[in-house]
TrEMBL record:
Gene designation: cbiG
Biological source species: Kosakonia quasisacchari
Ranges for domain Cobalamin biosynthesis central region: 140-217
GO biological process terms held by the UniProt record: cobalamin biosynthetic process
SUPFAM superfamilies: CbiG N-terminal domain-like, CobE/GbiG C-terminal domain-like
Residue intervals of the CobE/GbiG C-terminal domain: 231-347
Signal sequence interval, chain numbering: 1-22
Identification of the protein by name: Cobalt-precorrin 5A hydrolase
Residue ranges annotated for the Cobalamin synthesis G N-terminal domain, each copy included: 54-134
Keyword Repeat: no
């Protein structure tokens, strides 16, 4: 993640100098600041159960943790909680005089590098970044995935391999389908070699392909498919439609349109279905959001789609899947609506 989440940043300080520095940062970034009872002042909260306990709780619940003090103290407190860079929060350490802002943990996916640079700018301090790709002025696969809001199969080993190839001077290509070019152009791609055509590759050691396509042509080198989450799905169904049926029909609709399931971003339906177990389980199984819209909101777009009087009598609107997909994609629909066994599924693409 390369963005700051102000709503979930916790800051900790143990000395008067730390409190003064934290107060400077409060004016630039919304955060919850903790200190001891003895140093408590306006805008700060006391430790709950002690410094270590409060810091550990923040580590598990916040997206970013900032500690003003010695790096060793922070390391000793959080060490038992560290899991991996894909799930741990960003951890930043700042010295009491505000000279150095250290990205300690989760520099890429957690956003610590970006946050460290931002805070260093506020304090006119030196950002301390040690990730290999950054110190070599290279992009990183995990950062590219974060910037594109993308997923891929076997993400962890792929990130390790591609980033190692980049810092080792290997030639890693980057190809993207036409619909993704503007998005990729806004990303950090330093070190990658731009590839225009997969059927005319330059000499490469591997290639990252940014696409929502289900399949790519066979290539004579390692391929790492990065799938941006751009596809939204509007679904209408009868009450108590089984999860297995919904899943099978959605998979078939994706296959019919040659779309990788990893490209899904959200499933949408009508408010009447907000507690529909099959839809909730479907969204959870795919790791996507489940959004619902009021009948009034759907009604504004139902004229684009065939209407069902039965659906209108039960839901208050003549069509559900089409208008839901229309709202989520701003009218950028894909293919034909699937209608089978009381289920309707409409796909859209959202940027």
């Amino acid at each position: 993640m390369n963005t700051v989440k102000p709503e979930s940043i916790a800051l900790f300080c143990l000395t008067p100098g730390g409190v003064a520095l934290a107060a400077r940062l409060q004016s630039a970034l919304s955060m919850t600041c903790f200190t001891s009872e003895e140093l408590l002042t306006e805008g700060f909260q006391p430790f709950d159960g002690g410094f270590a306990q409060t810091l550990r709780e923040a580590f598990c619940t916040c997206s970013s943790v900032i500690f003003i003090g010695a790096t060793g103290i922070a390391v000793r407190v959080i060490a038992p909680l560290v899991n991996d860079k894909f799930n741990d929060p960003a951890v930043i350490v700042i010295d009491e005089r505000g000279q150095h802002v250290i990205s300690l943990l989760s520099g890429h996916c957690g956003g610590a590098n970006a946050l460290a640079r931002y805070l260093a700018g506020v304090l006119n301090a030196d950002p301390v970044i040690t990730t290999a790709t950054d110190v070599n002025d290279l992009a990183a696969l995990d950062m590219l995935a974060s910037q594109l809001d993308a997923r891929m199969q076997d993400f962890r080993p792929a990130v390790k391999r591609v980033n190692q190839m980049l810092v080792s001077g290997k030639r890693v290509g980057l190809w993207c389908e036409a619909a993704m070019r503007e998005d990729v152009a806004r990303c950090d791609t330093r070190g990658f070699i731009a590839v225009d055509r997969l059927d005319a590759l330059p000499e490469l050691d591997g290639v990252v392909c940014v696409t929502t396509q289900a399949a790519l042509p066979a290539l004579p080198l390692p391929v790492f498919k990065l799938v941006p989450k751009r596809i939204v799905v509007g679904i209408g169904c009868r009450r108590d439609t089984p999860f297995a049926l919904l899943s099978a029909l959605l998979l078939r609709q994706l296959q019919a349109n040659a779309i990788d399931p990893l490209a899904l971003r959200a499933i949408g339906s009508i408010t009447l279905k907000q507690d529909e177990k099959g839809l909730i389980q479907l969204a959870q199984s795919l790791g996507v959001l489940f959004e619902v819209f009021s009948a009034d909101a759907l009604r504004q777009h139902e004229h684009h789609f065939p209407a069902s009087e039965f659906v209108r009598q039960t839901a208050g609107v003549g069509s559900v899947s089409g208008p839901a997909a229309w709202l989520m994609s701003h009218g950028q629909l894909i293919g034909e609506t699937l209608r089978e066994q009381g289920v309707t599924i409409t796909l859209g693409v959202s940027h």
